[in-house]
Amino acid sequence: MQKFNTKNIVSKFDFTEYQASRAGSDNLDVLNPYNNELILSLTSDSLATTAEKIDRMDLYRKNETNLSITDRGYLLEKWYLKIMENKNSLGELIVLEQGKPLSEAISEVEYGGAFIKWYSEEGRRIKGDLLESPYLEREFLVRRQPVGLVATITPWNFPLAMFARKASAALAAGCSVITKPAEDTPLTTLAMLSLAREIGLKKEILDVVIVPRSRVSDIGKLLCTNKKISKISFTGSTTVGKQLVLQGAGNLQKFSLELGGNAPFIIREDCDLNLACDELILSKFRNAGQTCVCANRIFVNSRILNDFLPLFLDKVRTIKTGPGLDADAQMGPLINEEAATRYRALISDLRKSGANFVYQNEKSERGLIFAPTVAIASTTDTRAFYEEIFGPLAVIYKFESDEQAIKHSNATNYGLASYLFTDCRHAIKKYTKLLDFGIVCVNAGTFSNSVAPFGGLKESGMGREGGSYGLEEFLETKFISIK
Ligand code: SIN
What we know:
The protein is of the alpha/beta class. The chain has 16 helices and 18 strands.
């Protein structure tokens, strides 16, 4: 712990543009979720300065000062290399403001960086069409062009990766990006921007708005209603996603939305149980259970519950909680007091429903750090069944048949990720077809990757991020008929 000190970590990046020199009610105070200490106080953007930034970026686009596809690829590649050079420092900064263990934070930098690298190459593969026109005197062309100025609104659970995933695809498509980081974790974005400036990515193409909690909804509304913004790419809760869509409805704003999840994690009787338990630990407790793709409802075939439980609990017992910068910490704090209050309410609702709490080591709890907790549900009529848990609580439901597992899995408004553990080829075919989720992950507890489409069905959102699918989100199709 000793070698990590807040000042040292912060001093590795240039925050001068936003660093507040004195206290102010409009400042955004960034706190360490482990000990509630102030990391940095930032000056914030007003509605007026946000609108000025949008105007400046729009003007730059109109002046035809856009970059060629080669330049965009080159800048993204340089940005990627800069990020990799600073991988450890960025990881430490993520831990400081977000709380996850350092190894996870460094993996996040690599994961986010992989998108920038991938899109640095993929941009050059955007292509249009020359169609066979039905008229001799006419030529039909199809051009794929950037949607324009994009606003990205990113979450606190993966402050680097979600910004990188959106911004790199948009920049590769030829868009400019104004980004609004989460109020809990703006420093990672500012650090990424300071590296972007070092390699020559200009403000007119990639900029940020720093928003204090008191102005979040006003600035969100401004971004959705400003006609110079052509698209909003948002990752966050379904509730906020719906609000943004309503706000943007007046000018038919375009949206890509990565919203909540309620992932079923189905363990059939014929799987490698040890593997299933290892992967469940990863899926459930990564980032202290604060991911949209965390195992939220664990369905275990009743015939193997007695084999599964001791194996799983033995692995849960080994999880060490602590400050993310501690070398042996595997699980850090929840993000803030509001999240903790919601999480406590969810646990108490589950208790009232008669669930059997089979593991909870309260001694390892401190501040916003919660112990990994395991419960066997007695009913599906609980908040934990219908809501995203967003905390280190594993809730197990027994099932008797494939039909029941599929029915219960789909009994949710969400449709982001789902997991299946089985060695049966027929079961894989059946489940992958019938599960109503944008992602079905078989025999593994993680899947996120820069080349693959990430996104959900139903109220988990619209659009995809990652791979060529992610690039599509930032392109328009123009049909050109020439006589
Ligand atoms: C999320 O939880 O929002 C993203 C998780 C991922 O990309 O793996």
